[in-house]
Write a structure and sequence with these properties.
Oligomer: single chain
Largest sheet: 8 strands, mixed
Distance between the termini: 12 Å
Order of helices and strands: EEHEEHEHHEEEEEHHH
Number of helices: 7
Number of strands: 10
Structural class: alpha/beta
Length: 241
């Protein structure tokens, strides 16, 4: 079942709010699916390919709810910073006493999302983030050059889970002093056999930024194009029923 909210449109395209926008990997997928996207990020993001509001995502969302402007939107995507619960933070870094503490923004983000009354997505990588894993996507499902598993909590709507496609081979790079070759590149960090910027752009399907940090933090647009297209198709069917 989808959320009963009718699709709100500016012109021919429904509006989507993209919180914690970074360089716009998620945004581009939703745009390709048929949305008019506005991003929000606390940092300046000159490479973001759509209109961007610079500010704290929670403050901006609270302001939109309070003013009623949130009603101009059909859907909200969020990718709260994941460092507090990602596999590296709670695994290797914790065991070695490395790193620092991180604020977990998932719960306060969800609280505000529920207050909007809109259907939404909360995206997180594999780790211990406290989200429902309503949907898990992998680069192999879209024949990308990265594995990049991502989990999605879906608020107010649902989508069918695609079958997980077996990985074609190892992720290229050094592991414990040995170099492994393979069809996929490691979309994180630097060194250790990590891909060049052009390799990373090609593997992720992202061409509008050449900033390594933005590329390694991004969601491949194929993921959110799949999500956005499924949401719009289901919603239009519901409206027609």
């Amino acid at each position: 079942m989808t959320h009963p909210t009718l699709v709100r449109r500016d012109g021919d395209r429904p509006r989507l709010l993209d919180l914690y926008a970074c360089a716009g990997g998620a945004a581009m997928g939703y745009h390709r699916a048929g949305f008019d996207v506005t991003g929000v990020d606390i940092a300046p993001r000159p490479n973001y390919p759509f209109p961007l509001i610079q500010g704290d995502a929670l403050d901006v969302l609270a302001g939109l709810i309070g003013s009623g402007e949130i009603e101009r939107y059909t859907f909200v995507h969020t990718s709260p910073p994941c460092q507090a619960a990602c596999a590296l933070t709670v695994g290797t870094n914790l065991s070695q006493g490395w790193g620092r503490s991180h604020v977990d923004l998932v719960a306060p983000t969800r609280e505000l999302l529920d207050a909007t009354g809109l259907p939404y997505v909360i995206e997180q990588p594999n780790g211990r983030a406290k989200i429902r894993k309503d949907l898990t996507l992998c680069g192999e499902m879209f024949r990308l050059g990265v594995i990049r598993h991502r989990n999605f909590e879906l608020g107010g709507w649902s989508i069918e889970q695609p079958a997980h496609v077996p990985h074609r081979g190892r992720v290229r790079g050094w592991r414990h002093g040995r170099f492994y070759d393979g069809p996929d590149v490691a979309a994180y960090g630097n060194g250790g056999g990590k891909p060049t910027i052009p390799e990373l752009q090609n593997a992720m399907g992202i061409t509008w930024t050449d900033v390594r940090e933005e590329l390694t933090e991004a969601i491949p647009p194929a993921y959110t194009q799949h999500i956005g297209a499924a949401f719009l198709a289901a919603t239009l069917l519901e409206v027609a029923a």
